[in-house]
């Protein structure tokens, strides 16, 4: 379970997060949506420890963010922009990350390399990769580690149609085994099809948090999102 309480973050005089409150239960897929500048990436970066909040608490499976090493073992984070060492082969990089998480299942790794169609490219330097290929490597790493929670910022960006299908299938299997997913997206149709819950963020606050099935009684997520954007103060 992921719990966020009264999360606040400012950059100088600019207040980005204004008391974000959010709980995600085990086995849940939650989509985090909002317009540009709403605070989605800042929230995810705070959870991942890349940014320190000014106020508020974050816990994953009853482990506080202040318990640094134990906390970081609870999740794997895929940012929107993936920075790599350009001269290192993806295969070597993945094994390095797996060791940090104390994972050594090479058969599982090979399976995900095949699922995402990276067999021919996995030994090439990551500096030769496209944006989409880097996201595939991040997803291969994430699903091989299979931590309690996956946190992803726009994970579908740059993926080809086959990789999108692979992503959906892998995420479904991961959740069926007890995993939890929080990901930001601007693709509302995707969120509608694969998520149990959705949170709308606007101006640094969550203006709606609800089960998708309940929201769809009143229309599509696109319609509801546009209404929230127009009507919420």
Automatic annotation (TrEMBL):
Lineage: superkingdom: Bacteria
GO MF entry, a single one: ATP binding
Record's keyword annotation contains Protein biosynthesis: no
PROSITE patterns reported in the protein's UniProt record: ABC_TRANSPORTER_2
UniProt organism field: Lysinibacillus agricola
Protein name according to UniProt: ABC transporter ATP-binding protein
Residues covered by the ABC transporter domain: 2-228
Entry keywords, A to Z: ATP-binding, Nucleotide-binding, Transport
Keyword Endoplasmic reticulum: no
């Amino acid at each position: 379970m992921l719990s966020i309480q009264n999360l606040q973050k400012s950059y100088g005089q600019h207040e980005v997060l204004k008391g974000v409150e959010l709980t995600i239960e085990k086995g849940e897929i939650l989509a985090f949506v909002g317009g540009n500048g709403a605070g989605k990436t800042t929230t995810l970066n705070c959870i991942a420890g890349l940014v320190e909040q000014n106020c508020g608490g974050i816990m994953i499976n009853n482990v506080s963010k202040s318990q640094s090493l134990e906390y970081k073992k609870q999740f794997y984070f895929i940012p929107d922009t993936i920075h790599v060492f350009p001269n290192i082969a993806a295969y070597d990089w993945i094994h390095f990350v797996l060791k940090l998480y104390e994972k050594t299942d090479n058969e599982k790794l090979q399976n995900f390399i095949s699922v995402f169609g990276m067999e021919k490219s996995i030994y090439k330097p990551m500096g030769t990769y496209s944006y989409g290929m880097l996201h595939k490597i991040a997803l291969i790493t994430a699903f091989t580690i299979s931590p309690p929670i996956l946190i992803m910022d726009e994970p579908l960006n740059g993926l080809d149609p086959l990789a999108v299908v692979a992503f959906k299938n892998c995420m479904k299997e991961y959740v069926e085994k007890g995993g939890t997913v929080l990901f930001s997206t601007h693709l509302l149709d995707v969120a509608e099809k694969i998520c149990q819950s959705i949170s709308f963020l606007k101006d640094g606050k969550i203006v709606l948090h609800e089960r998708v099935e309940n929201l769809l009684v009143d229309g599509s997520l696109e319609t509801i999102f546009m209404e929230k954007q127009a009507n919420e103060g």
